[in-house]
Amino acid sequence: MNIKYTHLRFEFRLLLLIALIFSFSVVQGITDSSDVEALQELYSSLNSSSQLSRWTSIGGDPCEESWLGITCQGSSIVSIQISGLGLSGSMGYMLSSLGSLKTLDVSDNRIHESIPYQLPPNLIKFRNIANNNFSGNLPYSIASLVSLNYLNTSSNSLGQSIGDIFANLTDLLTMDLSHNNFTGYLPTSFASLSNLLVLHVQNNQLSGSLNVLEGLPLADLNVANNNFSGSIPHKISSISNFIYDRNSFDESPAPPPPRPLGRHHHTSSGSLTSWGSDGQSCNSVKGNKNRLTVGPIVAIILGSLVVVVLAAVVLFAGVREKKRNDNTIKHSFGNIPRIQMKVNNEGHEQRVKPTPTTLNLTSLSTENLLSHKMQGNNGSVNVVKSPVTATSYNIGSLQGATNSFSQEKLVGEGSLGRVYRGQFHNGKVMAIKKIENAALSLQDEDNFLEAISHMSRLRHPNIVPLTGYCTEHGQRLLVHDYIANGSLQDMLYLSDDRIKVLTWNVRIKLALGIARALEYLHEVCLPSVVHRNLKSANILLDQELNPYLSDCGLAALLPNTERQVSSAKMVGSFGYSAPEFALSGIYTVKSDIYSFGVLMLELLTGRKPLDSSRVRAEQSLVRWATPQLHDLDALAKMVDPTLNGLYAAKSLLQLAEIISLCVQPEPEFRPSAPEVVQALVQLSQRASVQKRRSSEE
Prior knowledge:
The protein is about 30% helix and about 15% strand.
């Protein structure tokens, strides 16, 4: 009896426990809490109360309540498909919290602003954001979506360069970037898309050649209505569905690559049979091996003897010439090893011999591995084998474009030389930097083309691209895109339009663009590129006030003596320089973050980093501002008076918090560039949501 009673009590307790667990799950909901929060924020950003049935910004459970367009597996959301609902607003800032999301489709709506910078990390199908009003550029977080196999951003207002973000997307099968405003060349990382079958980039403003696509298994390629030029590669012209009208291509496709010696066979009809790598004929007819007559056989034997003799003569001459050149180079340069800077695990720079992996700024095709010659001061020739993707200009064309570098063409001057505005015969306007040879050390002069090689491969929507160079007659000139609206420094301190142009949201936009450029240099480039000279004078603005970071990679050309600063000067306490640079001469990616913090202080206060015209306590912007960044009343008094109080107090505090972290005296306590980007993205998108809600109210 007691045993039976005990058994009943156990069953009762078990049932009670199950009931409690069930009731708790009903109260808490079955959907992962981070997924719920992300969808609630997305709903608020979309302004779509009527179209999205059962969605809500407070409470609710997407999986249990079957929200429109939501598919779940267990407690995780794996698909969002809400196309063609007439949705407006933006995509919010919490999509990256959807850790299990595989498919995202928001096509055929009226969603605007930029694509969220941080996307769900495990997307397989960024199925469709087509036919919306998205602007800005492709987010660099696409580079980390290694499982992505479908990408469609067509029929939006996306612009600037596409971005070199595709090196790891080897599973991508279909990509449609058509009907946007993309400019510049096709990114070199397209060459890594080893499984890409469909590529549509028609109706953009893309330029350059199609060479980067030559090794891809494309079956459907549309590049119509762009500015592409040059010859169409032979492999591309043979694609079954290839549309290329309304470009500036040469009339005929490029000839096929030359066939190697010793791999051909003449048939009896005089045609040439090519042999594959496995020794089998690619286009021969079975059973023709006995059809050669005596005449062709004798001709083949005699021709082979002639080739062997000529090859022996050339080889002997080459060996003698190599010995002579080796002695000349050894006499001229000694045994100076080629070195480059790399940041070690502790964040300090160390000199390392370059290896194939440290030259990996972008994916490169073999046809870009060119050999360049540079004439040294002592008459010797240094040969550098590097991938230089920029155009080589002759000195005459640059002199003609700048009226022989006349004073009226001068637009700026920096530590390496002067910058001129150049206009070429075709009407194109470029910025031409004439570097003074006295500014280069001997070692840096030897590696000038190597530095150009690195700079020419930097491709980001917020970085001024290097498009050309000139090394004729000992000259050192760089050719960049011309950004017509001047520098941020000019806009902050010299422009009469500052009050009406530099609104709060514009300043946040500028900070975010510069942070994204730093993220690219620090995180995407291998090895990392440290700018070392981040300041408002090096931030250029276009007509839409998009920021462009200039002088990227130029710091490598400066002599080491100019980078060593005495601690007595205390440069780290003033201006843009981080404290560790003043004390030890060490400059790392975290030093760039400090300079960026100072730059944000400029945007916040409208003050120069170092201003001797102010009272002593306010001459250093960082020293004066840092103690006040956590006091709202003091902070409000610091803000640039030209803003006239037109900003949200919460946004002000958030920006001040980001600045405070960036200008920490100790490098290890400063955030990384991706962390800064994420914080600014959230600040920007929250501000946009608040602005939209206020206007509706």
